[in-house]
Amino acid sequence: MSMTDYYGDYGVAEAGALRRRQRASLANQAAAFQGQKRGKRRLEDVSRVYSEGYQPLASSFGQRGLGGPSVKSGIRRSGLSRYAEKFQRDLGTETQAIQDDLNNIAMQEADSQAELEDYIAQLRLQKAQQIMATAASLQQYASY
Amino acid sequence: MAKDKDGKYKGTRGGRTGGADALQAQLDLLAINEPDLADRQEGPYISEQMKLYNAWLKKQKDKALGSGGGSKALTEAQKLANELARAKLQAEYDKADREAQQVLDDREASAQEKADAVAERQRKFAAYSKVADIYAGQGAQTDALYGGQLEDLPSRRQADLDALLQAVSAGQGQISGAENQFLSSLVTPTAYSDVPLVDLSTTQPVNPLMGALGAEGASTAGVTGQSAMDAALAAQYAQLARQSAGQLNVGAQNYMNALRNAGVGAAAAGRQQLATGQTAYQNQINAKYSDLANQLAMQRLQAQQDAEARAAQARAEAAAYGEAPAAPVDVPVQMPVTPPPVDPNVAAEEERKKREREAAIAAIRAARRSEF
Prior knowledge:
The complex is a heterodimer. Chain A is mainly α. Chain A contains 2 helices and 2 strands; from the N terminus they run αββα.
């Protein structure tokens, strides 16, 4: 084990780790931003798909004589209820996906920060240990 | 040849030519001093040549006595015998003189070798003496070398201990500083405390289509029920998220507390390690300098002992060659007995006797020729 493995690089390892951490943080921020955008878009897509599908669904009930201004059939009501539940489920799924993406990015960011803190602390500990070991070894008296 | 107080010739017993020849010479002297020696019974120590000579001498004596020419011929024969004995003595003396001269020559030939040996001994003695002096001087150098180091050890030990104390104090300060900085840097986590969660359960927008459907007779009960269930689910999810954020926030707080405790614990452990290390290193420093002192003392002792041992060895080597003698050792040589000084009167007498001896020898040879 050489001294440069830990601290003999005079801070290069720590500086390198900080730079890597900064790049990772920027990447996480970008990923979070993109995730928000994607989630919002997916929610909008779900709403759009269900909005666009509502009229054909309602029309299909009318064409079969199951719906109209004075017709309130149970089949139509049941169909619309299932449509609404499915719509709600899809909305919930996408919302959960957005939450998971954002939380994953947040945890990844926290992990990266914790890893950086640990690494720097390890570097400093090893530096201190190496200094202590060298000071305690009294190498100039090893010949005795 | 010297004479004694009675006017008789005297000689030396025990000459280098052997006991038998010395006895023969003494016999010759007796023959000279006592002319009737030839009539005496010959001894067992007389050589065969001498026996023949004595027998011939007795024959000549008997012949002279028988022919009436008597004492004069005997006297001549005795003189010849005496001269012959004297010639033998001279020959023995010359032989001894040659041997003595040979000894002198040999000694002179070895004199140069002895001089060279003496010079070599002197050189070696000087060299080993110098080496001994050098090693003896190393003792002081060793003391200076190790003594200085040993004297420095206490101050060095104290300096190390002071430095250790300073290091420990500095370490304690660094630990406390790091602890305070860490604790102050900790912030309460807020990441999960204010998460912007969304709850859409209470925000149901009014939809015109839903009003139209109701106006057309659609039942609202189903819609209301569905709406209520959606709101309940949204509220539940939002609540779940908030609950999760709250739990995560608690977790973050706990984790931050754990980090804080870890920092405080690390500081406590560091202080404990410093205290333990201070004690351990203090003991190690003391032990190290004690070991160093012992090692230096042992090394100094070893170095001194080595130097002393080498100096002693060099001294022993030098002593083996020793100081060269002032003069070459003169090996005593037993010289032959110096002939007595020549008296002019005696020399004239000797010359006369010599001429008489030569005449006698000639007469003897002539008689031998006539006899054989």
